[in-house]
Design brief:
Elements lengths: L3 H10 L1 H9 L6 E3 L6 E3 H17 L4 E4 L13 E9 L1 H5 L5 E8 L2 E9 L4 E6 L3 E6 L2 E8 L13 E3 L6 H16 L3 E3 L4 H14 L7 E7 L1 H13 L3 E4 L7 H4 L6 E6 L2 H20 L1
Parallel strand pairs: 3-4, 10-11, 10-12
Antiparallel strand pairs: 1-2, 4-5, 5-6, 6-7, 7-8, 8-9, 12-14, 13-14
């Protein structure tokens, strides 16, 4: 899509007001959703409405795939899709932990861009296909810095910093516990801070661009498209990739499917990513034998 840069720039332009929505909430109300520990706040709802309305007013033909309205998602025969997580890390947000806004951009059946707002750092990270990634200070939108491709040197599980999180489904939870156990036995430093979009972003940026706050890899047994679409674009643009439970890169159908429950393994280092995936395969095989 020739206007990929223009579309991503349009997404970036709506984020300063989104920042104010996050900051101006005087009261947070919390409701539980399906799945253990899965919540939604009034801020999720308000933010989603603002983001969807803003993008729909600019691109009326686009399909909007957003977390809180996914069940009633309007299916359009559109070449342009926005995959939106209005507040990734709702539990984190309610406790002043890391949280983000993530918007993936799909055009002509390919991932053409991704934008993540890291709220606590007040930084926007944006990727445009074949044009790299930039970092923008949301308090000074003219302050744009090109993100250099990291080296991603660590290909071994031992001593790698590997992020994960707990899924909402019971079956995925059991697999998570087993994979986690095997990684720790292999000498990994396993962390869980979240949210997923930020975890993958930190793996994409690497030590060079995110000193003292990066991961060598990220894995998870059950997430949704809006958790991954934007961060996948950024990771791929910086030389890494995300594979699914079949060992293949996540397809555009998966990244735009509001009902898909996605297991993934992500890293800038292919060897490390595959080593983690191999552990998952062994765990899954044992599970099938039981």
């Amino acid at each position: 899509m020739n206007n990929s840069r223009e579309i991503v720039s349009s997404v970036i332009s709506i984020l300063p007001k989104a920042k104010r929505i996050l900051e101006n909430q005087k009261q947070i109300t919390i409701q539980e959703k399906e799945g253990l520990g899965n919540i939604v706040t009034n801020v999720d709802i308000d933010m989603e409405k603002y983001l969807c309305d803003s993008l729909q007013s600019r691109y009326s033909e686009a399909q909007i795939i957003a977390e809180e309205s996914a069940d009633s998602c309007e299916v359009k025969n559109s070449s342009l899709k926005f995959v939106i997580d209005p507040l990734d890390g709702s539990t984190n947000f309610s406790n002043s932990w890391p949280h983000s806004i993530a918007i993936g951009v799909v055009g002509e059946d390919e991932l053409i861009g991704g934008v993540i707002y890291d709220a606590l750092q007040e930084k926007i990270y944006a990727a445009v296909k074949c044009e790299g990634v930039v970092e923008i200070d949301i308090n000074d939108m003219e302050n744009v810095k090109k993100v250099e491709k990291p080296q991603y040197p660590n290909g071994n599980i031992k001593k790698s910093v590997i992020a994960h999180d707990t899924p909402y489904g019971n079956e995925a939870f059991d697999t998570t516990v087993d994979v986690y156990s095997e990684l720790v036995k292999e000498g990994a430093s396993a962390k869980t801070v979240g949210p997923i979009s930020l975890d993958v972003l930190k793996a994409a940026l690497g030590a060079e661009n995110r000193p003292h706050d990066y991961y060598d890899a990220v894995w998870h047994m059950e997430v949704r498209a809006w958790d991954l679409c934007a961060s996948t674009a950024i990771l791929r643009e910086l030389g890494g990739d995300i594979i699914g439970k079949d060992g293949k890169p996540l397809s555009i159908d998966t990244l735009t499917n509001p009902r898909a429950k996605i297991a993934f393994f992500a890293s800038g280092n292919e060897k490390l990513r595959d080593n983690i995936y191999n552990i998952y395969e062994k765990v899954a095989e044992k599970g099938n034998e039981r």
